[in-house]
Every structure is written in C-alpha cells, then in structure tokens.
Specification:
133 residues; alpha+beta; Alpha-Beta Plaits; 2 domains; 4-stranded antiparallel sheet; two-stranded antiparallel ribbon; 4 helices; 32% strand; binds iron/sulfur cluster
Length: 133
Amino acid sequence: MIKKILLSFPQGVAGKPMAMELIKTYNLDFNILKASIDDNIKGTLLLEIMGEEADINAGIIFLRQNRIGVQDILSGVDVDEEECVDCGACTAVCTVNALEMDENWKLVHHKDKCLECMLCVKACPTRAIHALI
Ligand code: SF4
Ligand code: SF4
C-alpha cells in the first residue's frame, strides 16, 4: 500500500537518521514530498511511504516511540473552519467535488477525493485553505 504521512520532528530529534531505519528495519520505501527544517532544530517532513500495511503500521509506531509526530494525510489541503465563511468560492474550482456545499450551505471537505491541484488555496477569499504538501 501507499500512504502519505506528515512527520513532525521536535527539538533534538531532527538530525536522527529515522528514514534509513524505516527502510532497513521495516522494508519500507518512501518519497520525500516536502521538507521543512527550522534552523536544524525542529521540522516537518511529508513522506509518501510504500510497503506492506503491517510494516507501515510498525514503522509508524517506531517513529512515535522516537518522539516523532505522525499525521495521516488524506488531502493536499486543510480547511480552517474558523476562517471559512462558507462562501462556496472554492467549490467552483475543485473539479473532483472534494469541496462541496451541503444543503445548509455549509462547506464539506471530502478529503479522500482530493487530487492536490491546489486551485482552491488561491480561490479562497479568506485564506481559510492551507496547503499541506
Ligand atoms: S487541492 Fe484541488 S482537488 Fe484538492 S480540494 Fe483543492 S481544488 Fe479540490
Ligand atoms: S472559499 Fe474559503 S471561505 Fe469560501 S467556502 Fe471555501 S474555504 Fe470557506
């Protein structure tokens, strides 16, 4: 299976060779989609990991045991509900209906449909949509 995860490295952990450990110990392969390191102190890493489901789950447990935050990424974007005013502008640019208005004119985000085109990020007048990748 293939899974996207966002890793958050706290201070003191960023330099450890966790990626090599994932490959060697858990038979996983990965692509780095995005990396951000703050003065070599802490950072985030967006990975696409590939392998058997059990190996991926074991690898994620290993990362968490080493104080690394692991978040599943289903969509390329995140909608901040506090900033969203349900204007519907983003739904006009989302070609796969990952962003839709419900019958009460409230925005619904179907994360599993997202193709990561990022068109909605610029379309939002309140900047409520944030790119994760
Ligand atoms: S990134 Fe593209 S596919 Fe995903 S929700 Fe935004 S417009 Fe839709
Ligand atoms: S464009 Fe922005 S404010 Fe409007 S519905 Fe979409 S996320 Fe909410």
